[in-house]
Amino acid sequence: MKKTFVLVVLFIFPLVAYLFFASGVNNFGKLPILTENIPDLKGLNKKVSLQGKITILGFLGDDIARVKGNAFNLNQKIYKRFNEFNDFQMVMIVPKGNEDEIQTLKQELGELSSVEKWNFVFGNHSEIEKLFSELNVNMKLDKNLGTPYVFIVDKDRNLRGRKDDEDEGVKYGFNTTSVAELNNKMEDDVKIILAEYRLALKKNNADRSK
Known about the structure:
seven-stranded mixed beta sheet; Thioredoxin-like_sf; Membrane or secreted protein; globular
Protein backbone atom coordinates (compact mmCIF):
# COMPACT_ATOMS: atom_id res chain seq x y z
CA MET A 1 0.00 0.00 0.00
CA LYS A 2 2.79 2.41 0.89
CA LYS A 3 4.53 1.81 -2.45
CA THR A 4 1.27 2.36 -4.32
CA PHE A 5 0.64 5.61 -2.44
CA VAL A 6 4.16 6.83 -3.19
CA LEU A 7 3.75 6.01 -6.87
CA VAL A 8 0.44 7.92 -7.00
CA VAL A 9 1.97 10.96 -5.33
CA LEU A 10 5.10 10.95 -7.51
CA PHE A 11 3.62 10.14 -10.91
CA ILE A 12 -0.17 10.14 -11.13
CA PHE A 13 -0.92 13.33 -9.19
CA PRO A 14 1.50 15.52 -11.21
CA LEU A 15 -0.02 14.17 -14.43
CA VAL A 16 -3.56 14.94 -13.27
CA ALA A 17 -2.47 18.40 -12.16
CA TYR A 18 -0.83 19.03 -15.54
CA LEU A 19 -3.96 17.98 -17.45
CA PHE A 20 -6.12 20.17 -15.20
CA PHE A 21 -4.02 23.29 -15.75
CA ALA A 22 -3.55 22.56 -19.44
CA SER A 23 -7.31 22.41 -19.91
CA GLY A 24 -7.60 25.63 -17.93
CA VAL A 25 -5.26 27.41 -20.33
CA ASN A 26 -7.33 26.23 -23.28
CA ASN A 27 -10.64 27.22 -21.74
CA PHE A 28 -9.61 30.48 -20.11
CA GLY A 29 -6.66 31.49 -22.25
CA LYS A 30 -8.31 34.64 -23.58
CA LEU A 31 -10.35 37.36 -21.96
CA PRO A 32 -13.36 38.22 -24.17
CA ILE A 33 -13.50 41.55 -26.01
CA LEU A 34 -16.65 43.43 -24.97
CA THR A 35 -16.10 46.79 -26.70
CA GLU A 36 -13.71 47.43 -29.60
CA ASN A 37 -11.63 50.48 -30.49
CA ILE A 38 -12.05 52.73 -27.48
CA PRO A 39 -10.81 56.24 -28.41
CA ASP A 40 -7.32 57.11 -27.27
CA LEU A 41 -6.63 59.90 -24.79
CA LYS A 42 -4.54 62.17 -27.02
CA GLY A 43 -7.23 64.86 -26.89
CA LEU A 44 -7.00 64.92 -23.10
CA ASN A 45 -3.31 64.25 -22.54
CA LYS A 46 -0.66 63.86 -25.24
CA LYS A 47 1.71 62.06 -22.87
CA VAL A 48 -0.68 59.24 -21.88
CA SER A 49 -1.94 56.69 -24.39
CA LEU A 50 -4.02 53.53 -24.20
CA GLN A 51 -2.41 52.20 -27.38
CA GLY A 52 0.22 49.54 -26.80
CA LYS A 53 -0.47 49.26 -23.07
CA ILE A 54 -2.50 46.97 -20.83
CA THR A 55 -4.48 49.60 -18.98
CA ILE A 56 -6.59 49.66 -15.84
CA LEU A 57 -8.94 52.53 -16.66
CA GLY A 58 -10.94 54.32 -13.98
CA PHE A 59 -13.07 57.42 -13.46
CA LEU A 60 -12.48 58.98 -10.05
CA GLY A 61 -14.98 61.85 -10.21
CA ASP A 62 -14.99 65.19 -8.39
CA ASP A 63 -15.01 63.94 -4.80
CA ILE A 64 -11.45 62.61 -4.47
CA ALA A 65 -11.60 62.31 -0.68
CA ARG A 66 -14.58 59.98 -0.97
CA VAL A 67 -12.84 57.57 -3.36
CA LYS A 68 -9.38 57.46 -1.76
CA GLY A 69 -10.20 54.11 -0.17
CA ASN A 70 -11.04 52.70 -3.61
CA ALA A 71 -7.70 53.92 -4.98
CA PHE A 72 -5.84 52.32 -2.06
CA ASN A 73 -7.68 49.02 -2.60
CA LEU A 74 -6.72 49.07 -6.27
CA ASN A 75 -3.14 49.97 -5.44
CA GLN A 76 -2.69 47.19 -2.90
CA LYS A 77 -4.55 44.40 -4.68
CA ILE A 78 -3.82 45.06 -8.37
CA TYR A 79 -1.16 47.70 -8.98
CA LYS A 80 1.42 46.30 -6.56
CA ARG A 81 0.85 42.84 -8.00
CA PHE A 82 1.39 43.79 -11.66
CA ASN A 83 3.23 47.12 -11.92
CA GLU A 84 6.56 45.47 -12.76
CA PHE A 85 5.23 44.37 -16.16
CA ASN A 86 6.58 46.79 -18.76
CA ASP A 87 3.33 47.29 -20.66
CA PHE A 88 1.07 47.68 -17.62
CA GLN A 89 -0.36 51.03 -16.52
CA MET A 90 -3.11 52.67 -14.47
CA VAL A 91 -5.07 55.55 -16.02
CA MET A 92 -7.55 57.47 -13.88
CA ILE A 93 -9.78 60.08 -15.53
CA VAL A 94 -10.45 63.10 -13.31
CA PRO A 95 -12.49 66.29 -13.81
CA LYS A 96 -10.39 69.44 -14.14
CA GLY A 97 -10.06 71.41 -10.94
CA ASN A 98 -8.93 68.44 -8.86
CA GLU A 99 -5.22 68.73 -9.60
CA ASP A 100 -4.24 69.57 -6.01
CA GLU A 101 -6.31 66.72 -4.57
CA ILE A 102 -4.74 64.28 -7.04
CA GLN A 103 -1.25 65.46 -6.10
CA THR A 104 -2.05 64.69 -2.47
CA LEU A 105 -3.45 61.29 -3.44
CA LYS A 106 -0.28 60.46 -5.43
CA GLN A 107 1.86 61.38 -2.45
CA GLU A 108 -0.18 59.11 -0.18
CA LEU A 109 -0.06 56.24 -2.67
CA GLY A 110 3.68 56.82 -3.00
CA GLU A 111 4.11 56.00 0.66
CA LEU A 112 2.89 52.47 -0.13
CA SER A 113 4.51 51.81 -3.51
CA SER A 114 6.03 53.43 -6.57
CA VAL A 115 3.48 55.58 -8.40
CA GLU A 116 5.43 55.62 -11.67
CA LYS A 117 2.67 53.85 -13.59
CA TRP A 118 -0.25 55.69 -11.99
CA ASN A 119 -1.44 58.22 -14.61
CA PHE A 120 -4.08 60.84 -13.89
CA VAL A 121 -5.71 62.46 -16.92
CA PHE A 122 -7.85 65.58 -16.53
CA GLY A 123 -10.80 66.55 -18.68
CA ASN A 124 -13.92 68.68 -18.65
CA HIS A 125 -17.35 67.23 -18.02
CA SER A 126 -18.30 66.69 -21.66
CA GLU A 127 -14.96 65.06 -22.49
CA ILE A 128 -15.25 62.63 -19.59
CA GLU A 129 -18.86 61.76 -20.36
CA LYS A 130 -18.01 61.17 -24.02
CA LEU A 131 -15.08 58.89 -23.18
CA PHE A 132 -17.16 56.89 -20.74
CA SER A 133 -19.99 56.50 -23.25
CA GLU A 134 -17.50 55.01 -25.74
CA LEU A 135 -16.90 52.11 -23.34
CA ASN A 136 -20.48 51.02 -24.02
CA VAL A 137 -20.93 49.45 -20.59
CA ASN A 138 -24.05 48.66 -18.55
CA MET A 139 -23.48 51.35 -15.93
CA LYS A 140 -23.40 55.13 -15.64
CA LEU A 141 -21.18 57.75 -14.08
CA ASP A 142 -22.54 59.26 -10.87
CA LYS A 143 -23.27 62.97 -10.32
CA ASN A 144 -19.56 63.55 -9.59
CA LEU A 145 -18.54 61.99 -12.94
CA GLY A 146 -17.09 58.99 -11.14
CA THR A 147 -17.70 55.28 -10.72
CA PRO A 148 -16.22 52.72 -8.30
CA TYR A 149 -15.73 50.37 -11.27
CA VAL A 150 -12.48 50.09 -13.21
CA PHE A 151 -11.98 48.49 -16.60
CA ILE A 152 -9.34 46.38 -18.33
CA VAL A 153 -8.30 47.78 -21.73
CA ASP A 154 -5.90 45.83 -23.94
CA LYS A 155 -3.06 47.06 -26.15
CA ASP A 156 -5.40 47.58 -29.10
CA ARG A 157 -7.80 49.71 -27.02
CA ASN A 158 -10.41 46.97 -26.62
CA LEU A 159 -12.38 46.64 -23.40
CA ARG A 160 -11.93 43.15 -21.96
CA GLY A 161 -14.21 41.44 -19.47
CA ARG A 162 -16.35 38.38 -18.85
CA LYS A 163 -19.30 37.08 -20.85
CA ASP A 164 -20.29 34.35 -18.41
CA ASP A 165 -19.57 35.71 -14.95
CA GLU A 166 -21.31 33.65 -12.28
CA ASP A 167 -22.79 36.74 -10.62
CA GLU A 168 -23.38 39.28 -13.39
CA GLY A 169 -23.44 37.41 -16.68
CA VAL A 170 -21.59 39.98 -18.77
CA LYS A 171 -19.05 41.68 -16.54
CA TYR A 172 -17.62 44.93 -17.89
CA GLY A 173 -15.78 46.26 -14.85
CA PHE A 174 -14.56 45.54 -11.33
CA ASN A 175 -15.83 47.22 -8.18
CA THR A 176 -12.92 48.78 -6.29
CA THR A 177 -14.94 49.04 -3.09
CA SER A 178 -14.88 45.23 -2.90
CA VAL A 179 -11.51 43.76 -1.91
CA ALA A 180 -12.97 40.29 -2.50
CA GLU A 181 -13.84 41.16 -6.12
CA LEU A 182 -10.38 42.57 -6.75
CA ASN A 183 -8.79 39.47 -5.20
CA ASN A 184 -11.04 36.80 -6.65
CA LYS A 185 -11.96 38.15 -10.08
CA MET A 186 -9.94 41.10 -11.26
CA GLU A 187 -6.56 39.66 -10.32
CA ASP A 188 -7.39 36.48 -12.26
CA ASP A 189 -8.48 38.44 -15.33
CA VAL A 190 -5.38 40.63 -15.36
CA LYS A 191 -3.27 37.46 -15.12
CA ILE A 192 -5.13 36.01 -18.10
CA ILE A 193 -4.56 39.01 -20.35
CA LEU A 194 -0.89 39.26 -19.38
CA ALA A 195 -0.46 35.54 -20.08
CA GLU A 196 -2.21 35.98 -23.43
CA TYR A 197 0.33 38.57 -24.54
CA ARG A 198 3.27 36.60 -23.18
CA LEU A 199 2.17 33.52 -25.13
CA ALA A 200 1.72 35.61 -28.29
CA LEU A 201 5.21 37.07 -27.84
CA LYS A 202 6.74 33.61 -27.39
CA LYS A 203 4.96 32.36 -30.50
CA ASN A 204 6.18 35.32 -32.55
CA ASN A 205 9.75 34.80 -31.36
CA ALA A 206 9.53 31.08 -32.14
CA ASP A 207 8.17 31.79 -35.65
CA ARG A 208 11.01 34.24 -36.35
CA SER A 209 13.64 31.71 -35.30
CA LYS A 210 12.37 29.07 -37.74
